[in-house]
Amino acid sequence: MTNRTDITTLEDIKLLVDQFYARVQKDPFIGPIFQQKIANHWPDHLEKMYRFWQTILLETHTYSGSPFPPHKHLPIDHEHFERWMHLFTQTVDHLFAGTIAEEAKFRAKNMAEMFHHKITYFRDNAQ
Fold it and tell me: What are the alphabetically sorted keywords of the record (predicted)?
């Protein structure tokens, strides 16, 4: 086993994001949802994710925007978020170890829970 280091650079963020979304795209459960939503806009999506995670984890403020609205009407439930979180955790643990790597998993878990609750709320209160 190789020595894993912590997430400390934009190159680390890009590695994490690229490998995570490669797993997502191949996943039979959540991959089709991403493919339908993102279609042929993967380079744009990945760039946005680089900036998002760089802002969150490295405190280099390169992302501005609101991440929730594009997810608001997706046909996803708790099981989709569990799978997303499993793939994210698996990717982080495969590549990195350290305080920021743990922070990445913590932030992803909180974000998944919040998005799930908000999507459920909007779905249950649609008029």
Answer: Heme, Iron, Metal-binding, Transport
